[in-house]
Amino acid sequence: MIQLTNVKKIYESNLTEALYDISFVIEDGEFVFLVGPSGSGKSTILKLLTAEERMTSGGILVGDFDLAKLKQRQAPYLRRTLGVVFQDFRLIENRTVKGNLEFAMRVVGAKKKLIRERIPYVLELVGLSEKGDCYPSELSGGEQQRVAIARALVNNPKTIIADEPTGNLDPERSYELMCLLEKINQLGTTMLVVTHERDLVNCFNKRVISIDSGRVISDMENGLYDYDTI
Predict the structure, then answer these.
(1) What is the pLDDT of residue 162?
(2) Would you state the pLDDT for residue 230?
(3) Cα distances (Å, whole numbers) of residue 194 to 7, 81, 230
């Protein structure tokens, strides 16, 4: 579960008030879109959820972690429960696809046996079984994004946070990628997808939390929303 309660965030470096009294709950197993224009506060919410930034006031629970009380040394354990997919992929260019996944597993101390078993399963799940020995430069943009999803998934996180995962893809690849995230969600992983692509969101019957100027302006279950609201 992810729970934000009256969260406020002020960046003290320039006294920017990025979030105002944000509250919402994402239950285990949900698929939720977080939408809003650039500068609305989406990135700040992600930084708070991953403990990259700390809230100014309010409360955040991520699974068993109370982020108001989280010590810096505990942050890596929080992040192990989360898989993060970045828009710019952030793959290691001098490692193969399998090498990228193996590195992600070794970082959290996974055993060799688990690595051998888990990587083929995850590559099959994202449709890249034949690409394990390829380097990122040998893959298309859509394939690279699938590797990024596989890397986020490989340590079996409870929740995946996808930050503008289709931003570098054409509409057809974007739709395919979103279907993949939906499939992963159906296997039990909580999914939070941050995006500004309204047409894509409206293709899926999912919950949509809309924010603007640091405030939640709507929270709807059916995945459709008025273009004029953000």
Answers:
(1) 94
(2) 44
(3) 18, 18, 14
